[in-house]
């Protein structure tokens, strides 16, 4: 027995030694609460439990799992932007979670639920009876001073019965170790989608550890939120949209993540139209009624007719539809007024007045300078408080979005601040100086304390408020941070609420017997169809350019393989690439130079790099519709082409690898996409562009006096060398090559094959007219197919090929103008009646 105990002790020692090494320099900051080290100076039990299990992993295994998490973020394209960014950044995920035990969490959730209910009642009064202002519980100036108080919705009862469907509070531990509220989020709380992504990444990287810790699942929260939105509509199977400002928004990835996870339609303002007392989605089948709108657009931008007239993000007439109870908007426009710091000081008394209770969770002591006594208090303690704007980010008259500390100002700036507060105190608040509590982060093989802010989410349900067991945690890099936002030097962390008991493994999937079977995924917004169409076209254009690059580069690698690219043929390829905007007219007739520029010149819109980047931008607007594998393929193509190569072999290798990835994407689309309208528009774009490019290839290299060299290049570009040689025992001849590349309906690379596929797809797209006549895109496609079916290879002159190319361009434009109308007047009146 003694020997067995010794062996067990020996096995435990490596883990204990590693833990001691990790925490060797971990020092709790003076006077600052810490999640790892408790008030007694010892590690908290929940963290000891975590690190005991974590230390059982070898250092190599830990690094492998960290790398796996980082790789998933890159491959899945989990991104964000900071204001002013022109490019996405990879999501900065901390490798350690923030861990909270169940007992501590229950105290926090009780305070959040109470606060959410209080704010719902305050909103109901502010936009309803107005008794709180009339009776002096809230100064009128504290409300009127906020640009988020919308007179346009005053007196409008919220469709669905409530103002707040989703509420969030930023919290941290106060000096006494209790959770304190740092700010309320009632406008359109962000972060829930990133919290979900954090959970997916970390639970996958540390699956056994995640299970052994009994981490509470977040799926029930999202299910409750979705079910409440569904129940708020006035029909059994409502259509729910998530309104996003678009893919240039800082948190667009989150919008796409939530839409995909919850099964909502991701829509922009241009996707929606008002008719009568309803809001409709512009789809490829006409207008379809929208019942619920989860908005991620700020209130003032929602309706240019009644709110900010300069907005291009909203829906003209939306406020009038709200008055007519025609759509549920979550959260109700105007709810952002409660984010004003000016109201914080009044919430304790409002809680006693409306709920008959004291606030269960305190918030930062705040003095609104619109009241004389509070203003004098702030000015007398100016060096002891932080000055903030009363209604928005930043302090009026001072640069930046953060607080102003009078102790750090010059004497002249200090006097200017005091004068501004005296002159217009309603714009300023003084807040208690608070340093954020800290949590462990992993740095260079050790743990170290860093300040954090935790955003906790509450969703309204018929039975009250349900709290997400976890949240959105932001961690600062500097130990003395006073605020945390997703800018430079900030990372995010998953939040684990752990239990001593086994937790339910609930998912967002409902019981089978509660779901009505359906085989169509739902409506396809015109914007999404447009993007799918152009995604297909951009990828095909990139493939055509890459095939030209390969035709130039193959002989340079192996002179005995492929065409010799004699000077006249090189000139023809160069002319094509110049016409396509892939190379400059001034580039010398040198195959290596032409190939390199056509592959990687970012300043030429027709280069392979520019076209793949255009496809990537388009795919960004389709994040909720593309599989992770498809997105990964597009991302890898863009990264490969952006990596500069400076030798002929490198250019050819990059072109060939990218062509293989394009084939992979085509395979994913062919095998994994549901055969609904979205897939058809992607295919229509690909087939139309391939037909156009193949016709151009034929016109350039199958002209009447074409040489063997030219015809051989055409067969290479059209990927028909093997087929031609298997059919004909002679060298390349004009008529057989023309027939194979242009007219052969059995050749998947021919023009005829593409036109046949276009006819099939167009015939299966929804008709937009109700007069029974064939519509223009189908009429053009049928005429093209008839011409190609009856044509003979010997009659295909250059003039005929040019006319064919022009007809194909007209067909592509006709598809776009027919199915993808743009602008405020783009609705289709003939489809407004009788739509579900």
UniProtKB/TrEMBL annotation:
Signal peptide range in chain numbering: none
Residues in DUF403 domain copies: 524-820
Coiled coil spans: none
Circularly permuted ATP-grasp type domain segment(s): 97-476
InterPro entries: ATP-dep_Glu-Cys_Ligase-2, CP_ATPgrasp_2, DUF403
Name this protein carries in UniProt: Uncharacterized conserved protein, circularly permuted ATPgrasp superfamily
Source organism: Bradyrhizobium canariense
């Amino acid at each position: 027995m003694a020997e067995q105990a010794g062996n067990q002790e020996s096995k435990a020692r490596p883990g204990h030694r590693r833990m001691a090494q990790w925490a060797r320099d971990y020092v709790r900051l003076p006077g600052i609460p810490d999640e790892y080290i408790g008030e007694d100076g010892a590690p908290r039990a929940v963290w000891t439990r975590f690190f005991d299990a974590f230390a059982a992993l070898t250092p190599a295994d830990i690094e492998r799992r960290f790398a796996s998490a980082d790789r998933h973020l890159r491959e899945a394209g989990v991104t964000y932007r900071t204001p002013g960014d022109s490019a996405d950044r990879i999501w900065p995920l901390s490798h350690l979670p923030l861990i909270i035990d169940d007992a501590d969490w229950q105290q926090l959730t009780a305070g959040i639920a109470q606060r959410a209910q209080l704010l719902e009642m305050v909103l109901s009064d502010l936009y309803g009876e107005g008794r709180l202002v009339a009776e002096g519980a809230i100064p009128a100036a504290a409300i009127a001073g906020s640009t988020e108080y919308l007179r346009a919705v005053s007196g409008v009862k919220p469709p669905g019965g409530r103002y707040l469907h989703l509420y969030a509070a930023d919290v941290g531990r106060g000096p006494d170790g209790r959770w304190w509220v740092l700010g309320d989020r009632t406008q359109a709380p962000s972060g829930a989608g990133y919290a979900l992504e954090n959970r997916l990444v970390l639970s996958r990287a540390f699956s056994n550890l995640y299970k052994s810790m009994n981490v509470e699942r977040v799926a029930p929260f999202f299910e409750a939120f979705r079910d409440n939105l569904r129940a708020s509509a006035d029909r059994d199977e409502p259509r729910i949209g998530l309104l996003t400002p678009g893919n240039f928004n800082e948190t667009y990835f989150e919008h796409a993540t939530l839409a995909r996870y919850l099964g909502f339609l991701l829509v922009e303002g241009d996707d929606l139209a008002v008719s009568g007392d309803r809001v409709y989605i512009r789809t490829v089948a006409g207008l379809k009624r929208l019942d619920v709108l989860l908005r991620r657009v700020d209130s003032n931008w929602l309706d240019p007719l009644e709110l900010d007239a300069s907005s291009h993000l909203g829906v003209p007439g939306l406020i009038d539809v709200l008055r007519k109870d025609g759509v549920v908007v979550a959260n109700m426009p105007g709810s952002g007024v409660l984010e004003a710091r000016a109201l914080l000081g009044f919430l304790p008394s409002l809680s006693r007045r409306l709920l008959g209770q004291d606030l269960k969770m305190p918030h930062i002591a705040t003095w609104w300078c619109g009241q004389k006594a509070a203003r004098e208090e702030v000015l007398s303690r100016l060096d002891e408080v932080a000055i903030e704007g009363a209604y928005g980010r930043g302090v009026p008259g001072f640069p930046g979005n953060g607080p102003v500390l009078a102790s750090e100002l010059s004497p002249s700036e200090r006097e200017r601040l005091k004068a501004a507060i005296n002159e217009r105190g309603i714009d300023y608040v003084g807040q208690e100086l608070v340093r954020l509590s800290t949590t462990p982060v992993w740095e260079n093989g050790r743990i170290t304390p860093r300040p954090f802010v935790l955003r906790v989410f509450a969703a309204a349900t018929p039975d009250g408020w349900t709290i997400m067991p976890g949240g959105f945690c932001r961690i600062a890099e500097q130990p003395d941070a006073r605020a945390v936002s997703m800018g430079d030097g900030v990372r995010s962390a998953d939040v684990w609420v752990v239990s001593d008991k086994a937790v339910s493994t609930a998912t967002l999937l409902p019981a089978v017997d509660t779901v009505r079977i359906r085989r169509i995924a739902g409506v396809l917004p015109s914007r999404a169809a447009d993007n799918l169409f152009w995604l297909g076209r951009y990828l095909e254009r990139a493939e055509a350019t890459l095939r030209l690059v390969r035709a130039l580069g193959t002989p340079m690698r192996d002179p005995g393989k492929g065409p010799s690219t004699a000077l006249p043929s090189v000139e023809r390829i160069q002319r094509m690439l110049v016409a396509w905007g892939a190379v400059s007219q001034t580039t010398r007739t040198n195959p290596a130079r032409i190939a390199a520029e056509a592959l990687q010149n970012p300043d030429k819109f027709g280069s392979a790099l520019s076209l793949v980047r255009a496809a990537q931008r388009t795919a960004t607007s389709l994040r909720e519709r593309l599989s992770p594998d498809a997105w990964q393929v597009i991302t890898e193509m863009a990264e490969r082409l952006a990596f500069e190569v400076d030798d002929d072999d490198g250019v050819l290798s990059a072109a060939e690898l990218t062509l293989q990835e394009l084939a992979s994407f085509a395979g994913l689309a062919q095998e994994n996409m549901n055969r609904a309208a979205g897939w058809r528009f992607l295919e229509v774009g690909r087939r139309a562009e391939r037909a156009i490019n193949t016709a151009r290839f034929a016109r350039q290299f199958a002209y009447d006096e074409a040489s063997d060299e030219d015809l051989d290049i055409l067969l290479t570009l059209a990927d028909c060398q093997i087929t031609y040689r298997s059919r004909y025992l002679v060298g390349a001849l004009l008529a057989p090559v023309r027939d194979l590349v242009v007219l052969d309906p059995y050749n998947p690379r021919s023009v005829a094959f593409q036109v046949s596929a276009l006819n099939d797809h167009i015939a299966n797209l929804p008709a937009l007219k109700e007069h029974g006549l064939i519509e223009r895109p189908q009429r053009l496609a049928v005429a093209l197919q008839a011409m190609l079916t009856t044509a003979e290879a010997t009659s295909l002159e250059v003039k005929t090929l040019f006319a064919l190319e022009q007809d194909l361009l007209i067909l592509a434009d006709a598809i776009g103008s027919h199915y993808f109308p743009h602008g405020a007047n783009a609705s289709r009146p003939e489809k407004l009646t009788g739509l579900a």
